[in-house]
Write a sequence for this structure.
């Protein structure tokens, strides 16, 4: 067997697997989205985007991503920098900080529901301290901002660690000599972070951001648990079309719209954090 | 003026004593080489001087100012790192200008200084490249240019040439020495390569196990090693040693010969460099074991008094393994060491 073909032969099984279990279903979904039974049509998309809930759920999804992702980037960078400087107990702290990763998103939603609901921790604490007279129901349509904040908090709590682990690995790859050189040449700790850590972290940062942003557009279980129907997002609309309205074509259309948005943002992030041509990081 | 004074500096890493009570004064514009085997504490001393490491005890003074409590940037120093530490995400221009930018220097001034030092290091045509597009030698030049652009009082270099191949190393050695002399900075240069040390230094500080054993000019270190370690570390092939026992007033018995020596209580070590001997009628009798014709001269490894004994002889001679050689040491080149203290005895 020629060595030239060997790599291709070796990746064949994976390629086949992906074709059968990813590409083929994807084609089916696309087919479903672009047809209503008789030939090619954009009816499903028109139908879905014309519905009054579509702009709201799109806005909610984008708003949530815009609120959650920047906070997570900053938090993850801060935590990663701190962890990287620790000499002892570093693994221990990392394990503790990544515990939320081991909890399913629905469970995470339920945990935060338990904090915010009428008989929850927050209410008991506030009334126990005498701040409020009696426990109030915070998660209602009268308090959209509290619902939003509760969901954002749950998302931040749940999914910051996934960025953290990627960034910790990335920071670990930056040679210490760069920091020493920067220090000798007069860079303050802040300057070292801005001029050395951030630029050299670009590959890890873009990976972490892409993963996190894609996850943000797929947000569902946490929103469902805390906000229910008060806070519609794109994914909950997909769910509704498929399982409440039994409209597979419309569900497929929304799924494709989410995919398109994800691809759009991925391309944008990769562009934004691109390493200059010639620079090796 | 940037004289460097190191006063009673010691460094401990946990239980491990990396540096013992170092005292050293380096004159303004002097080129001082710290020479020693790997792990003897050269880098640690350099890092204490530059402020990347703090001494456990002791003081560092630069230009009459005590600096050991100051940040590296406030010490008037710059540094060339062993692995260059040329930032991969910045162009050569921005690398050289890094320190200047940190000082918030104007764009014009940065450009002027970067271009001047780049020209000095012959890398002016590489300014827009990234580190990944440079060869090891070019990266080395960028690292030196970056240090020079700061116009520092003191420049510190930690094995700056150790990652280059032999030919490039020899070329850079001469060039670096010229550039540094020109810039009138005080330089401390760390190396484990004795040839590099001998060829570049105004003065060499030989370090061994966290101590400075001798600090003197290259020729002094070579001719009059202060201790057995220096004698065997410097010179290739190294100095020969033979046991000497007292044979009367100022006379010593060395491998069956009686030689003049110092007035001391014995025993001593008799030491002679391989090139300081000649074939003669009278002298030390050795048996040749290995003969290596090196072109310029003949290196003969002999056995003498049960020890290895090397002689560098005229390349015209014909010597075969097994031959008995009578070697006469040049009297004024013989050195004596106390086997107890390992120090030189006059
Ligand atoms: N940060 C450190 N922690 C513990 N030991 C160290 C540290 N830095 C250096 N050492 C030890 O100190 C000794 C001297 O190291 P170094 O100054 O780097 O030697 P050299 O540069 O002469 O090769 C070595 O034995 C090394 O293991
Ligand atoms: Mg070293």
């Amino acid at each position: 067997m020629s060595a030239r073909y060997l790599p291709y032969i070796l990746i064949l099984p994976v390629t086949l697997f992906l074709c059968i279990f990813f590409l083929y279903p994807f084609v089916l979904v696309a087919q479903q989205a672009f047809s209503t039974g008789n030939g090619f049509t954009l009816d499903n998309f028109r139908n879905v985007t014309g519905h009054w809930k579509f702009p709201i759920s799109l806005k909610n999804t984008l708003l949530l991503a815009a609120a959650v992702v920047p906070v997570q980037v900053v938090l993850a960078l801060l935590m990663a920098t701190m962890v990287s400087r620790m000499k002892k107990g570093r693994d221990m702290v990392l394990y503790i900080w990544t515990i939320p990763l081991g909890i399913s998103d629905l469970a995470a939603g339920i945990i935060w529901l338990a904090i915010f609901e009428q008989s929850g921790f927050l209410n008991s604490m506030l009334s126990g301290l005498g701040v409020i007279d009696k426990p109030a129901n915070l998660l209602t349509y009268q308090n959209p901002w509290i619902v939003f904040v509760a969901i954002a908090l749950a998302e931040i709590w749940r999914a910051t660690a996934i960025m953290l682990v990627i960034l910790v690995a990335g920071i670990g790859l930056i040679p210490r000599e760069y920091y020493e050189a920067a220090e000798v040449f007069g860079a303050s700790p802040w300057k070292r972070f801005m001029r050395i850590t951030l630029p050299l972290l670009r590959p890890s940062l873009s990976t972490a951001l892409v993963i996190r942003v894609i996850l943000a557009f797929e947000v569902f279980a946490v929103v469902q648990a805390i906000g229910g129907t008060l806070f519609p997002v794109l994914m909950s609309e997909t769910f509704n079309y498929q399982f409440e309205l039994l409209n597979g074509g419309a569900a497929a259309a929304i799924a494709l719209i989410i995919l398109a948005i994800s691809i759009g943002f991925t391309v944008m992030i990769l562009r934004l954090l691109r390493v200059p041509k010639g620079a090796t990081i | 003026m940037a004289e460097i004074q190191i006063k009673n500096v010691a460094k401990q890493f946990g239980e491990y004593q990396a540096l013992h009570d170092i005292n050293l004064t380096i004159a303004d514009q002097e080129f001082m080489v710290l020479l020693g085997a790997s792990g003897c504490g050269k880098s640690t001393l350099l890092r204490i001087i530059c402020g990347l490491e703090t001494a456990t005890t002791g003081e560092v003074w630069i230009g009459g100012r005590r600096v050991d409590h100051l940040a590296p940037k406030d010490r008037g120093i710059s540094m060339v790192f062993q692995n260059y530490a040329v930032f991969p995400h910045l162009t050569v221009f921005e690398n050289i200008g890094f320190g200047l930018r940190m000082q918030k220097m104007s764009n014009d001034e940065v450009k002027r200084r970067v271009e001047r030092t780049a020209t000095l290091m012959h890398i002016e045509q590489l300014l827009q490249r990234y580190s990944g597009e440079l060869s090891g030698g070019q990266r080395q030049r960028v690292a030196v240019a970056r240090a020079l652009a700061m116009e520092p009082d003191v420049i510190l270099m930690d094995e700056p040439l150790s990652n280059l191949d032999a030919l490039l190393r020899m070329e850079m050695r001469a060039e670096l020495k010229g550039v540094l002399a020109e810039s009138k900075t005080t330089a401390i240069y760390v190396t484990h390569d004795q040839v590099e040390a001998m060829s570049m230094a105004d003065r060499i500080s030989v370090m061994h196990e966290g101590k400075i054993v001798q600090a003197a000019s290259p020729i002094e270190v070579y001719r009059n090693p202060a201790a057995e370690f220096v004698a065997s570390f410097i010179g290739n092939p190294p100095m020969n040693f033979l046991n000497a026992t007292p044979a009367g007033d100022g006379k010593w018995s060395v491998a069956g010969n009686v030689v003049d020596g110092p007035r001391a209580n014995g025993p001593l070590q008799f030491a002679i460099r391989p090139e300081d001997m000649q074939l003669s009628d009278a002298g030390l009798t050795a048996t040749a074991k290995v003969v290596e014709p090196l072109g310029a001269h003949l290196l003969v490894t002999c056995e003498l008094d049960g020890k290895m004994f090397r002689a560098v002889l005229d390349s015209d001679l014909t010597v075969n393994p097994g031959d008995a050689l009578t070697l006469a040491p040049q009297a004024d080149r013989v050195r004596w060491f106390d086997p107890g203290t390992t120090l030189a005895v006059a």
